[in-house]
Amino acid sequence: MIARRDFLKAGAALSVSAVTASAIHFSHAAGSTNAFAFFDRNMPDGQRFALLAEQIGMDRRDTGRDMAALLYGEMRDWTEREGTLFLGVTRYADFTVASGIARENGRSMLAAVQRREGPEDLQWLRGEPGALARAALKNGLQTAHLETPEHLLGAPGSILWAMA
Fold first, then answer.
1. From which residue to which does the signal peptide run (predicted)?
2. Distant-in-sequence, close-in-space partners of 37: CB < 8 Å, separation ≥ 6
3. N or C: which end of the chain has fewer CB within 10 A?
4. What's the predicted TM-score (pTM) here?
5. Are residue 9 and residue 45 in the same domain, yes or no?
6. How many structural domains compose the chain?
7. Are 52 and 110 in the same domain?
8. Residues 74, 97: one domain?
9. Is residue 123 a contact partner of residue 159, using CB atoms and an 8 Å limit?
10. Are 67 and 97 contacting, i.e. CB atoms less than 8 angstroms apart?
11. Is residue 95 domain-shared with residue 125, that is, in the same domain?
12. What is the CA angle 43-153-70, rounded to 5?
């Protein structure tokens, strides 16, 4: 039988370890990136991007195929996040909504690239090759996937974009 004193010590140890783990997680999350990811889980490219964002420690949100509802609803203050880089892999409609709201609030689209019909067919809508990687590095993201967006964009119509 466990003595009351041993039981209390074990409980205190668990509490301390839980607080310590939370502090370590918070400091890692707060210091790891200053970026936020939007993705469309209904797209295989969006799912890949969500996994990448998770691996590199980014906060992320599924657009649910309705970027306007998300950005005017629960995330209505997203443009107020000073110094945050916003990245997304979405469809064209969500991209245009996000870029319009960003523009209205003084943000700028740094780069956007869309997969066209062919396997080697990328179209730069804003910016140029290298713009995504430079924006990522400036914000503390270390990922080669943004240097070569063709690896993230497999399906025609998918757009990888970045705004600040």
1. 1-29
2. 49, 50, 53, 58, 59, 60, 61, 86, 87, 88
3. N
4. 0.72
5. no
6. 2
7. yes
8. yes
9. no
10. yes
11. yes
12. 45
- The enclosing H or E element of 114 equals strand 109-115
Structural domain including 4 reads 1-32
Q: Kindly report the CA angle at 18 between 16 and 21, in degrees rounded to 5?
A: 105
pLDDT in tens, 61-114: 998 878 888 877 777 777 677 777 889 999 999 999 888 888 888 888 888 999
Q: Residue with structure tokens 């319009």? A: 100
Largest CA distance in the chain: 70
- DSSP, collapsed to helix, strand or coil, labels residue 47 as helix
Structure tokens at 93: 């409609």
Confidence at residue 8, expressed as pLDDT on a 0 to 100 scale: 46
Asked if residue 96 lies in contact with residue 82, where contact means CB atoms within 8 angstroms, the answer is no
* 114-144 pLDDT, tens digit each: 998 876 788 989 888 888 888 777 777 766 6
Tokens found for residue 58:
């980014």
